[in-house]
Amino acid sequence: MTMSGSNTDSAPVVSLAGVTLCYRLAKLRTPSLKEYAIHWMRGVLSYEKLWALQGVDLCVRRRQRVGIVGRNGAGKSTLLKVVSGVLRPTQGTVSVKGHVAPILELGTGFDFELSGLENVYLNALLLGRSRTQIDEKRDEIIEFSGLADFIHSPIRNYSTGMLARLGFAIATAWVPDLLILDEVLSVGDARFVQRCESKLEEIREAGAAVILVSHDLSAVGRWCDRVLWLDAGRVRAEGQPDEVLARYIAAVEAG
Questions:
Q1: How far apart are CA 255 and CA 250, in angstroms?
Q2: Helices (H), the chain
């Protein structure tokens, strides 16, 4: 694990304590919004609780690279949304300091009717960048994305790989305090993944913390300093990548 001895580097960028998130799901299926409203007014709707996260603790400091693994439905993406501020926990505390650049579900923050270039401005504005800042970085973003003339085409025509390249290029054009990546490295080709990892190393050296969710366990093991294993919303293990990944793989193989 790469750590600096300065007080700035030792201060947590992300601090989660006892974070729990519960969804209330309606048990009664209603074929239309009208019928749902009628049932709601009559007070006959019943709900069941889905515990997406249960008592999660997490601390991420500057320059740390934390990988999160787990089966589908384990709560990985939900945890990223809590850290990003998209979701508020039912219980627990969340503290995130500095500028956050999240790449969550592919297409988040994009308008599919606009061109790639127009979405560069839209997405970067949503990340808190000014028009002047975007103008300065526009050519760099286009070059890194590798989209060339496609940058002027509506992104509804883009492949998942093209969307991933554009989203990653925008989010990493500036050095954030925290970069959040949800399966971005899983949809690109080998050359794109290699370029991503080089870029991620650059922004880590510049002081950014990174949280990565990926089913590509080799990438997690190769690139992360620490790994968190989520299972049914709970932390099953946290620690060195080789140890945690070995336990996770054994559990998956055991069914």
A1: 9
A2: 7-10, 33-42, 76-84, 116-126, 131-145, 160-171, 190-205, 217-223, 241-254
State the Cα–Cα distance between residues 180 and 15, nearest whole angstrom: 14
Cβ neighbours for 60, distance < 8 A, ≥ 6 positions apart: 12, 13, 14, 15, 66, 178, 209, 211
pLDDT tens column, 75-112: 999 999 999 999 999 999 999 999 999 888 766 789 99
Closest to 104 measured CA to CA, from 126, 80, 68: 80
Give the CA angle between residues 120, 122, 123 to the nearest 5°: 70
Phi, psi of 129 (to 5 degrees): -90, 150
**Among all chains, which residue has been given the structure tokens 């500057």?**
62
Q: Which residues contact 203 (CB under 8 A, 6 or more apart)?
A: 172, 175, 176, 179, 210
How far is residue 246's CA from residue 251's CA, in Å, rounded to a whole number? 9
Q: How far apart are CA 128 and CA 121, in angstroms?
A: 11
Q: Encoding tokens for residue 192?
A: 């794109």
In whole angstroms, how far apart are CA 150 and each of 27, 85, 169, 195, 240? 45, 32, 15, 20, 41
Instruction: Report pLDDT digits (tens) over 21-66.
Output: 998 766 656 656 666 565 556 665 566 788 999 999 999 999 999 9
All structural domains of the chain:
62-87+99-254 (3.40.50.300)
What are the CA-CA distances from residue 217 to residues 67, 105, 186, 190, 246 (Å)?
Answer: 9, 19, 10, 15, 10
Structure tokens at 120: 């560069």
